[in-house]
Amino acid sequence: xxxxxxxxxxxxxxxxxxxxxxxxxxxxxxxxxxxxxxxxxxxxxxxxxxxxxxxxxxxxxxxxxxxxxxxxxxxxxxxxxxxxxxxxxxxxxxxxxxxxxxxxxxxxxxxxxxxxxxxxxxxxxxxxxxxxxxxxxxxxxxxxxxxxx
Length: 149
Prior knowledge:
Order of helices and strands: HHHHHH
Structural class: mainly alpha
Radius of gyration: 20 Å
Strand content: under 5%
Largest sheet: none
Distance between the termini: 71 Å
Oligomer: single chain
C-alpha cells in the first residue's frame, strides 16, 4: 500500500498547519536568540540577579521533577512543599503571561501590525479571533497596583 504522506514541497498538497507552526516556533526562538539574547549578559538583562521570577521558579520545579534538569550535588530533592510552592505560583504566572500577551498585542498594533498579521503570529485562523483574544486578555488584565488609589 502506498504512503499517503507527501513531500513537504509537493505543490498539490496543503501544508500541515501543525508542522508549519512548529517550524515557525523553532525559527522564532533562534531569531530572537540571535538578535537579542546571544550571550549571557543579553539574556540576563531581564532577570533579577538574586530571585527567580515566578515563571522561572515554576519551570525549575517542573524541570527537576520531570528529570529535564538535574539536581546539583548540594541541592535537596524536590519535596511536597516545593510542589505546593510551585502550584501556588501558577495563578501569578498565568496572570503575568496574560498581561505580557495583552501588552505585546497592544504594542504590535501600535507599531502598525494588522489583526491578520497578529492572527498569523498567534496561530489563529482569523483576524477576528486575534482581536477577540486581545479583548479577553485586556478585560482580565491585572490592575496596576501603582495606579490604584
